[in-house]
Amino acid sequence: MSTPPQLLNDDGSASMATMFMLSHHAFRRDLASFERALTSADRRPSAALQAEWKSFHEHLHGHHHVEDTAMFPNMRKMHPDLAACIDGLSADHRKLDPLLDRGDAAFAKLPDPSAALAVVRELQTLLAPHLATEEASLIPLIRAAKDFPPPGTEAEADMYAEGFAWSAHGIAPDILEKVFALLPEILTSRLPAARAAYAARCEQVWGTTKAGAARTPIPDP
């Protein structure tokens, strides 16, 4: 297994690469949390798990939609040698939405966990090599990018704040300090409330707010 990349650049700075890998960390973290919840004798409330699955579905769909419509076309143009790699990643993306839709139906069957657990494990199998490939081949290309586009509306700022609260959970505080320093004030002013709300959500869904202090896109045990 290859060594996972550091979230920060070699010079210790944060970048758009860091932000992208925060999402990778969150996908891995949440799938592991779903697996634990669905196999635990101490079952979490079905309604809370269903709501968290809906949020996970939206985050994962949004992430690969941005890649397909913005990142991948630009990278293909700038780095034609990566065409085969990008084709493979795009093929994975075409498998994701049907799998997420299956997850919607599976989580609707809770408290019976069998169908939901099967989808979670299938997603883990698909995403493990997919995320690792992105981190090895594509993430280095955005290490220099440090300009986060400001939200266009108050609603968009709220959405971004919720997204950062989700992706920041379980990341080392000094890394988050550098990430948040790159964000506009309209967004950072919303982060304390958004992060507090997300912590409360974790307590309700998973029964704990503990998530480690990762320095790579691999969650702490």
Descriptors for this entry?
221 residues, mainly alpha, Four Helix Bundle (Hemerythrin (Met), subunit A), 8 helices
Any overview of this molecule?
The protein is mainly α and 221 residues long. 67% of the residues lie in helices and 0% in strands. It has 8 helices and no strands. Helix 2 packs antiparallel against helix 3 and helix 3 runs antiparallel to helix 4. The two termini are 17 Å apart.
| Overall domain count | 1
Tell me the number of helical segments per DSSP (H or I, 4 or more residues long). Answer: 8
Shape: globular
Q: Whole-Å distance between the termini?
A: 17 Å
How many strand units? 0
Largest sheet: none
Please identify the top-level CATH class: Mainly Alpha
Uncertain runs are none
Based on helices, strands and strand pairing, what is the structural class?
Answer: mainly alpha
CATH fold group:
Four Helix Bundle (Hemerythrin (Met), subunit A)
Q: What is the element string, with H for helices and E for strands? A: HHHHHHHH
* Proportion of helical residues: 55-70%
CATH architecture: Up-down Bundle
Radius of gyration: 17 Å
Mean pLDDT: 96
Structure summary:
The chain is an all-alpha fold and 221 residues long. 67% of the residues lie in helices and 0% in strands. It has one domain (16-206): Four Helix Bundle (Hemerythrin (Met), subunit A), CATH 1.20.120.
List the helices and strands and how they pair.
Elements: H1 16-39, H2 46-78, H3 83-107, H4 114-137, H5 154-168, H6 173-180, H7 185-188, H8 191-206
